[in-house]
Design goal:
Elements lengths: L2 E2 L2 H4 L4 H8 L3 E4 L6 E12 L27 E6 L3 E8 L6 E12 L1 H8 L12 H8 L11 E2 L2 E5 L9 E4 L16 E4 L16
Antiparallel strand pairs: 1-8, 2-3, 2-8, 3-6, 3-10, 4-5, 5-6, 7-8, 9-10
Helix pairs in contact: 3-4
The structure holds a DNA duplex (13 and 13 nucleotides).
Length: about 210
DNA sequence: ATGCCGATGTCCT
DNA sequence: GGACATCGGCATC
């Protein structure tokens, strides 16, 4: 059985710990008549105003990023490169703009609908590999930004699946070369060896 | 297997 | 005008 994560889960201050705990949890959407579900296997933490890779670096605040300053437990979905809808989870309390990017999923339910939405012919590892692909497969668009994660249309649940600490790896984040020294921060977390992982398969630093 | 390129909304200089 | 939390296709090794 699935149990939705509570607001308390998201509103804690340790964004790195929350990111790690999201591995193995189940993301559920209902973009149409059919529920879709995928297990989270890769995430990246964005550590608020102090993090040069974050949209909220230096306290920046725009119409797009406003939702990052909301209390934790809502979705932050933004358009990347004008094309891809990237799904993030907002964490911490009001005015502390922490967020966690969901980068890859293992498809569990609604795979036929995922294929229709993505236009892919086969459910291979690319279906939900990478943040743009994962969001597209799950039917997540910028229309869902600001939506509470206790909504029936979009939530994250615990289903008893356990990820051992020894399976959890950390590495620098992907695609943030502009972030100065923060490029090197090991804020990407993933389940070791999982087939749906994005980025370089080979060299992945230990956590 | 690796690399370049185009698509293109939002934000920044 | 340029950069960007990306991806797939096509060219080349």
């Amino acid at each position: 059985m699935r149990k939705k994560l509570s607001k308390d889960f998201y509103q804690r201050s340790d964004v790195l710990g929350i990111a790690r705990e999201l591995l193995g949890k189940v993301l559920v959407t209902k973009p149409g008549a059919v529920c879709c579900a995928g297990r989270i296997v890769e995430v990246e933490a964005y550590n608020g105003t102090a993090d040069r890779a974050s949209h909220a670096w230096g306290g920046r605040r725009t119409a797009r990023t406003e939702v990052m300053y909301a209390p934790g437990g809502v979705a932050y979905v933004y358009l990347c490169y004008g094309i891809h809808h990237l799904f993030n989870v907002v964490t911490n309390t009001a005015d502390i703009p922490h967020a966690i990017l969901i980068r890859a999923l293992e498809p569990l339910e609604g795979i036929e609908d995922m294929l229709l939405r993505t236009g892919k012919k086969k459910a291979d590892v690319n279906l939900t590999r990478g943040p743009g692909n994962a969001s597209k497969a799950m039917g997540i668009t910028t229309e869902l930004t600001g939506v509470s994660l206790d909504s029936n249309a979009l939530y994250i649940a615990e289903d008893g699946f356990r990820v051992a600490d020894s399976e959890i790896m950390a590495s620098p984040r992907i695609g943030v070369d502009y972030a100065g020294a923060d490029v090197l921060l090991p804020y990407r977390f993933f389940i070791q060896g999982h087939p749906n992982l994005s980025g370089a398969k080979s060299v992945n630093a230990l956590s």
